[in-house]
Design brief:
The protein has about 280 residues and is mainly alpha-helical. About 60% of the residues lie in helices and about 0% in strands. One of its GO terms (cellular component) is extrinsic component of mitochondrial inner membrane.
Length: about 280
């Protein structure tokens, strides 16, 4: 689908993106006030954001494993949706506490020894198991750069850092079918353009048999639960490690995934990462 796009355009975008990042970084290191709203912030104009959005969108479509481009696309297209998510968090007692305290989910903030000692079935133990089995880490989540509001930037950062927790809650692995299912849930839950794009394009990379599973049961389950669940950004996961997954799912109004489908996914050895 993307073969007709001129290679020169992508090359030009990569050059412009790199130059913009380096040029702005040089500006940001001046001692005088430089317009930054948070440490990783790169101030950009409306025109620059539009260029970044188009370029990152094309690059992400061409190669959905370019997490840097997917991140830029999310930051440059999700402003209005981030406002709505922020307001949902503000209207939730637990969510408002998160906005006030700004916790981060990083290896440096996780007590891995304590989490590994928790009983099977608890959020902390199953989240750690997910990280270990899939060889992933929350530290790989990029810092937000192009959101021109400090609080909204944190909302986007929080979204990124709870993504693997959603995999744990939903019982989805990191293969393509699991990633698409989580993205369908996120699209219904958050409304972020990046999530909607991933939900729309992800199925194109599935085999016929897995596409049937998505259309017949998994997709409907993900959309239904994403639309009705409590705001997943408003959960202070760091204070719930000892809570069982069953209890947390019940509290969030999330149904267990289809058992037979989960069995078929777990038998797959393929690993892939999407949006």
């Amino acid at each position: 689908m993307m073969r007709g796009l001129p290679g020169a355009f992508l090359g030009s975008f990569k050059t412009s993106y790199g130059y913009l990042s380096q040029r702005l970084y040089g500006v940001l290191t001046e001692e005088k006030y430089d317009g930054r709203l948070y440490p990783s912030h790169i101030p950009t104009s409306t025109v620059q954001k539009a260029i970044l959005a188009v370029g990152s969108g094309v690059a992400a479509l061409k190669n959905p494993y370019r997490h840097d481009m997917v991140a830029v696309l999310g930051e440059t297209t999700g402003h209005q949706t981030l406002i709505k998510l922020r307001d949902r968090m503000r209207n939730d007692p637990e969510g408002s506490t998160i906005l006030l305290e700004r916790p981060r989910i990083r290896l440096s903030t996780l007590d891995l020894s304590n989490m590994s000692a928790l009983p099977d079935g608890t959020l902390g133990r199953e989240y750690l198991r997910f990280l270990e089995e899939n060889r992933v880490t929350p530290d790989t989540r990029a810092e937000v750069k192009f959101v021109d509001n400090e609080e909204l930037a944190y909302v986007m950062q929080r979204y990124r850092e709870v993504h693997d927790l959603l995999h744990t809650l939903l019982g989805m692995p990191t293969n393509m079918l699991g990633e698409v299912a989580v993205k369908w849930f996120e699209a219904a839950q958050t409304g972020l353009p990046m999530c909607i794009l991933g939900a729309a394009l992800g199925p194109l990379r599935l085999s016929v048999s897995r596409l049937q599973l998505l259309g017949q049961s998994l997709g409907l389950w993900a959309l239904r639960n994403g639309g009705r669940a409590r705001c997943v950004l408003s959960i202070y996961y760091e204070r719930r490690w000892e809570q069982t997954l069953d209890e947390l799912r019940h509290e969030l109004n999330i149904e267990e995934p289809p058992v037979s489908l989960i069995a078929s996914i777990k038998n797959s050895s393929s690993k892939s990462y999407y949006f």
